[in-house]
Design goal:
Blueprint (H helix, E strand, L loop, with lengths): L3 E6 L5 H11 L3 E6 L4 E3 L8 E3 L5 H11 L1 H6 L2 H11 L6 H4 L7 E4 L2 H13 L7 E7 L5 H20 L3 H16 L3 E7 L1
Parallel strand pairs: 1-2, 1-5, 5-6
Antiparallel strand pairs: 3-4, 6-7
Helix pairs in contact: 1-4, 1-7, 2-4, 7-8
C-alpha cells in the first residue's frame, strides 16, 4: 500500500475502530483516533455513560464493564466491540494529542462535526512539511450495524484511492464514482501538513 490512513470519530471508538480493523486486515497502513475529551461508552442509562481517559487500555475497559454488568454490556455490544478493539491496538488515542507526528495521506471522519474539528486542527498546525492530506467525511450512524457498513464503504474507497496513479490528480473522479455507486454523499477537502 502506498498511502497512510487515519480513521477519526468522536469519543466512543466504534466507527473508527471498525474501519481500522477491516483496513488492517486488508494490509493498509492505518491508525485510528477519537476527538472527544474522553472515551465515552454507553452505560446503564443515557445519563450514566462510562467515561475513560484516552490511553486507558481497552483490556482495562473490558474488565471494568464485565465486572459492572456483563449481561448488559454483552447485550448492547460494548464488550464485543472492546474485544475487537483490543485485538487492533492497546488503547484509544486522541487525535489532537497523537496525530501530530503522523503524516497521513488520507484522513477519514464519520460525522460532520468531527470532519470540521480535524480540518480546523490540520489548518492550525505549522505547515512545515507542505505535504498534502485528503480529509474525507463519510457520514455513518453510530451503531454496530452501520459501523460495519461504513467500514466496508471506507475499504472500497481506500482501494479506489490506492488504485489511482495519484489521488491528488484524480480525487474528484474517485469521489464522484463512489457517490454514484453507493448513493452516499461525501465531504472532502485537501489540506497541508
Amino acid at each position: 500500500m502506498k498511502y497512510r490512513y487515519a480513521m477519526v470519530c468522536s469519543s466512543n471508538q466504534n466507527r473508527s475502530m471498525e474501519a481500522h480493523c477491516l483496513l488492517k486486515r486488508h494490509g493498509f497502513d492505518v491508525s485510528s483516533y477519537g476527538t472527544g475529551a474522553h472515551v465515552k461508552l454507553p452505560g446503564p442509562s443515557l445519563r450514566e455513560p462510562n467515561v475513560y481517559d484516552f490511553g486507558t487500555p481497552y483490556k482495562q475497559m473490558f474488565d471494568d464493564l464485565r465486572r459492572k454488568d456483563p449481561d448488559l454490556y454483552k447485550r448492547n455490544g460494548i464488550l464485543p466491540m472492546l474485544k475487537r478493539n483490543l485485538s487492533v491496538k492497546l488503547a484509544p488515542q486522541r487525535w489532537q494529542e497523537n496525530a501530530a507526528d503522523g503524516l497521513f495521506d488520507v484522513v477519514f471522519t464519520f460525522e460532520e462535526k468531527v470532519f470540521d474539528m480535524v480540518v480546523e486542527d490540520v489548518h492550525n498546525r505549522d505547515h512545515v512539511h507542505m505535504k498534502c492530506v485528503l480529509v474525507i467525511n463519510l457520514e455513518v450512524k453510530d451503531n454496530h450495524e452501520e459501523a460495519a457498513i461504513g467500514a466496508r464503504l471506507t475499504l472500497d474507497l481506500c482501494q479506489e484511492i490506492e488504485a489511482a496513479e495519484s489521488w491528488e490528480d484524480s480525487v474528484d473522479e474517485i469521489i464522484v464514482a463512489f457517490e454514484t455507486k453507493h448513493r452516499r454523499k461525501l465531504y472532502y477537502t485537501i489540506s497541508y501538513y
